[in-house]
Amino acid sequence: MLSLSFTPLVPWPVLVGFGVLAVILAVVAVLARGRTALLRAVALGLVIAALANPSLVREDRDPVKDVAAIVVDRSGSQSLGDRPAMTDAVKAELERRFGALANIEPRFIEVGDAQGGEGDDGTKLFTALTQALADVPPERIAGVVMLTDGVVHDIPASLEALGLKAPLHVLVTGRPDERDRQIKMLEAPRFGIVGRDVTLRGEVMERGGTGTATVTVRRDGEEIDRQSIATGVPFSLTTHIEHGGPNVVEIEVEPLPGELTTVNNRAVLPIEGIREKLRVLLVSGEPHQGERTWRNLLKSDASVDLVHFTILRPPEKQDGTPISELSLIAFPTRELFVQKIKDFDLIIFDRYANQSVLPSAYFDNIARYVREGGALLIAAGPEFAGPASLARTRLASILPGDPSMKVVEQPFKATLTETGHRHPVTRALPGSEANPPAWGDWLRIVSAQTRPGVQPILSGANGLPLLALSREEKGRVALMLSDQAWLWARGYQQGGPYLDLLRRLAHWLMKEPALEEEALRAQTTGRGREVRVERQTMAEEAGPVTITGPTGKERSLDLSKAETGLFTATFEAEGLGLHTIRSGNLVAFVSVGPANPRELADVFSDTDRLKGVADGSGGTVRRVAAAGGGIEVPRLQITRGGRLGGADWIGFRPSDSATIRGVEVYPLGIGLWALVALAAAVLAMWLVEGRRGRAA
Known about the structure:
- This protein has 696 residues and is of the alpha/beta class.
- It is built from 12 helices and 36 strands.
- This is Glutamine amidotransferase domain-containing protein.
């Protein structure tokens, strides 16, 4: 390729000034002397040309292909209906047609959901486009094709705002007659008080629907409500918070016949159940060294509301002191064990002996309270082995063990039993990994025999049961056969994990979900869509769990042993939404991604969202769905001017870019030739003007 180049010997402003001056002088000379002054103008022109230093430049160029970016939307909304098949068919046809264009290099860019962590950014096609073309000069971009349903969430004001000057052509999948129904939550609390109701507000939206829909409400997989509501109108629902921890509430609206997707027909709301206050009644039968251990432990827990009574003056103590002179508070037995017994989450008898303080009917009330869902803890001392033992009252039917009327007083180390190694109350207690356990001795234990079916989780001297747990219908009972836990609290022989043990024990009795013997839990790990599954069991092995995704697809997952009694595994969720994990009769729920994904908030294919930016670039927007059910892909055409799209074609603008392999320069304004031309011009001017002078 041959071209003319200038490399001035003086700065361009100076050269332009000389040129202007030369023109003025030439005009004045022509006006004063006539046509003979043209030779002076030619001479001045040659001087200016010499100063401009012109050169002929010959370049050896290799043409470079322009780049056409084809952005293929693979987001969640593009997986609906026949859009995946439509997208694949259009992409394959574009690959074939671009292969026939000699000077265009197609660059296909696959884009999925733009998600990270807990966020939900939707579809980011333009972000992916700028990242994929970062290595391409803007002038080499001949055009951009976006194959999408139009549900895009990062649309710029114009392509020029992204530094691109190419036309944008949008090929829209989906069909204009799509119908869908979805549920949108307007008010959904994240927390709720256990035992109380929370109110949820939502709205069912539809296109091509019937105007009414049936809404089903489930809590932890169990249906709790079903009602018919009007679509397009906000509605309210109430649900009861049954337990602490996650209460997964699922609201589902019935699908329309032939609707686009049922994924957005369901809203998942994990509501964290919080106990307002755990009310604990602690009854100490007599003052002793371990009494303050229980009191301090329970008072240190901000979630516990403690009521504590110590029996200082039993009824049989008759010393003649007038009642009006006693400073002791009377034990309100009727108020506590008849009127308000159901207000307590846990009742603790700490070294309590049956001293006729509580009538037999009150023990019946306590047993009934446990069977109806209450919790009872007996922290026994020597009195438990005597005739005043609580095991000789009407509580005997619910106690995990029966004393053998013997107290063993010798140093011993509390030891986890085989069951205790698996039970969440004692599993992995600090120090239990050593043999013998790395904690201090206890000095006394009450000999007892556990009931059939009850396995102690801690044993003491001579293998006697130290801590036994049992379930009584809806309630729970714990029996600790020693009053020596205070030795750990006081640091005797380096002490022991009394806080871990007693706090876990109390929370197990009050049905803390994390301390269930048989439990299945699932939660996201925070790394993309990864989910961690935990299976707590008292069995030797845990079988595989079944995972059901939002679309109803099932798969099996094997668990591996993390520690004794605990089995875990992780899996990658295949989609957003509620996943159900089952192991036998245990069910766990985990919501992957946001409760109401932005990508599925509006699933209808749309030709209007991208029309503004496409029109501004000179491109086009069109659907690829044909009337007969097939697809229509426009022709690809190279155009150097005018329109960039028509009824059945889309255009790409070439740049004629090339790679320069070599350059040859031929100077025109310096050297001998320039000197000869300038001398000839001066000589001609002198001869002509000399003749005119002689003639005059």
